[in-house]
# Entry
Amino acid sequence: MTRTVSVHSYRGGTGKSNLVANLAAALARAGQRVGVVDTDIQSPGIHVLFGLAPDQIGRTLNDFLWGNCEMIAATYDRASALGQCTGSVHLVPSSIKAGDIARIVKHGFDVALLNDGFQQLSEALDLDFLLVDTHPGVNEETLLSIAVSDTLLLIVRPDRQDFQGTAVTVDLARQLDVQDANIVLNKVLPGMDRAVLKARAEEAFGIPVLAILPLCEGLLSLGSESIFGLSSPDDPYAVAVSAMAARLLR
Amino acid sequence: MEDRPSDIGALVRGIRTAVSPFRNTLRELHRRYRDLDEGRVADYIPELATANPAWFGIAVAGAGDGQMFEAGDCEQEFTIQSISKPFVFGLALEDHGREAVAARVGVEPTGDAFNSIIKLDEGSHRPHNPMVNAGAIATAALIKGDTHVERLNRLLDMFGRYIGRRPKVDVAVYASERQTGHRNRSIAHLLLNFGMLPPNVEEVLDLYFQQCSILVTARDLAMMAATLANGGVNPVTGVRALQAQYVQDLLSIMYTCGMYDYAGQWAYDVGLPAKSGVSGGVMTVVPGRMGMAVFSPPLDSHGNSVRGVAVCRDLSRHFGLHCFGSASLAGGMQLPWPAPGRVAEAAPPA
# Structure
């Protein structure tokens, strides 16, 4: 059985894609078969972290949603981006062509197809984990990704706007009967009291804080060049993500 | 969900539909039977013979929430044909009450085929039930209205309350029915002979041909069935389509007479009130729970849709829906809607 983990944040810039990529790498290094789907069709980007250049991208999630191909035909094995690793990562990117983005934003798509795609991918590749990177805010594909998730990770920065918006998402997740919803506090500054932050978040949202990730300068300066945790496995951020992966594996 | 803005509710409902395992169940059924190459498309009127035998749609709507699940050609329009009969019977009951209607048409199953010419009760000269053509014509004659147009509009409004939008009449099919409806014309004149029809026979026949030529989709039929399953109230619009007291009348007659000369086997196998039509529709009511519809034009020797019968039989067995069955016989799968305690408890939406 594939465990579907959806990663969402109410606002942009919370470090969602970086977390998905690092988590995928950590799981793959632990021997897991990991699928990653970029459902952020309005502003895709995670392919960059996996070293997939624009000229390497043929079929995308868009093609699957338009009925042009099977999900598996839009899947890219990213072993090359992971170095030595016993598991694997299979990425389904969204199209970065302006015309494709405009078309899907203007005309929409049958959101149920996305669920079919997740199932196809999980079965065809016999995945252990399916990580879903989502678009910020509330839209149909995000809600679907939340609804199908076995585990939901909501990324929140220690910021009042993030807190307010996330409460909306938590409420929707509840309406969609998500059983295992968790908060991930990200970009936490060194001086902040982690215990207080954790208590405040758990009180505000009524769901557990799965991890507290520090603001990571190394990750920022890398500028999405590659997956940070692979080159700096001892950095506190990478250590915390590895611990998250270990918790997911339990 | 009551306090939340309705658009959030609709969004969440849509997502629940998209991720429900029941959607896959319907798609598997569709895959299982789409290549079932049996039966023949009806050709007793020329316009029906133009239907594509590959058309195949399955739609199921929840009685409480109107949540719609679909697989295949659920937006393909077709003429409602005999599936109109129970609904017109319902309007006649509302217009005149049970006693007056019972004087014109009975409720006994005949076991006759869909194309049987006529059999009237020897003593009363009533047609046996509203599902055979003689009974349906006698029922159409009961619809109130000062003019033909008013009667037609009342019929269309009535169907509109069940569907959630006012349907249209397919003029080509209507003209074709009218031109070739010699058997129905003879039935009407025999009824007139016995004083069971008013003298405006042609107007009555016109209304009957028009009611049969109303355009619907599998989705529409599922919503009509869900409305009956919901005690007569459309679960999406909240509009009452039929007085609550008459819902049991329609369901009883559908149960005993809804599937032509297959009604007994259907009641035995599927165990649910249903109505089929020669254009390939089958509509089935699971009281208090849901409405199901299948559209597939090829018909078996009884005049019922081959794929329609197969799908309904599978759904009934799979989910333990037979009205005299035990839910524990279901194959372990859960429907999106729980079984109600009793039909009467099915509440209209807030």
